[in-house]
Design goal:
This protein is 21% helix and 34% strand. Helix 1 (12-29) crosses helix 2. A six-stranded mixed sheet has the order 4-3-2-5-6-7, sandwiched between helices. It is an alpha/beta fold and 180 residues long. The longest helix is centred in the first third of the chain and has 18 residues, at 12-29. The chain binds guanosine-5'-monophosphate and magnesium ion (MG). The site of magnesium ion (MG) has 3 residues, from loops.
Length: 180
């Protein structure tokens, strides 16, 4: 285990097993639909590459990059730093996200993509922190890997000041690691 990690919340095996289960569900859901699977950078990249291999239908992939999340607090001010390149009009779209926290990011991404008139738009998030949902946000993810408690987690793509994304598991940092 990494020296900065206090405890492991989800092991590599937990994550991979759940991804296989989700893969079976999504393979059935998207059979014959040739979906465009969109990842929200950067936190999703590790989950994205494992998840997409378990969705066994012809599909395309694309990415968008939004900000702003600095340190451990979300500001709610979102901008598109890099948009998708695919034309999704009339297409079945699946958004993959690392974590659904306050809901600001996914609400923003969803509205942005809906303006492009997809045939359908669903959301699959690896982690869901329902206790953190901002007042007024009622959007639910269609597919959830794991519900997690209200703690700041790192690993498997999730960062703290851009570090720890490469850990194969999801864990909680030791309190002394935080600098803000
Ligand atoms: P939301 O807009 O739902 O508040 O936040 C979504 C984004 O905030 C995620 O995509 C992720 O980048 C970041 N985030 C939220 N909670 C956590 C967390 O516990 N750990 C890390 N590393 N990032 C988080
Ligand atoms: Mg993210």
């Amino acid at each position: 285990m990494d020296k900065d990690i206090e405890s492991i919340l989800l092991s590599e095996e937990d994550i991979q097993n759940r991804i296989k289960e989700l893969g079976q569900i999504l393979t059935e859901e998207y059979a014959g639909k040739n979906p465009v699977i969109i990842g929200v950078m950067k936190g999703v990249v590790i989950f994205f590459s494992d998840m997409i291999k378990q969705i066994k239908v012809p599909c395309q992939m694309d990415f968008m990059w939004i900000s702003s999340y600095a340190g451990t607090t979300s500001t709610g001010n979102m901008v598109v730093r890099s948009d998708i390149s695919a034309d999704i009009e009339g297409r079945h779209v699946l958004i993959l996200e690392d974590i659904y926290d306050t809901g600001n990011s996914l609400t923003f991404v969803r509205e942005h993509l809906l303006k492009k008139n997809p045939a359908s738009l669903k959301i699959c998030t690896l982690l869901d922190k329902p206790s953190r949902r901002k007042h007024g946000i009622t959007l639910q993810a269609d597919y959830v890997g794991f519900e997690v408690p209200n703690a700041f987690v790192v690993g498997y793509g999730l960062d703290y000041n851009e570090y720890y994304r490469n850990l194969p598991y999801i864990g909680i940092l030791k309190p002394e690691v935080y600098t803000d």
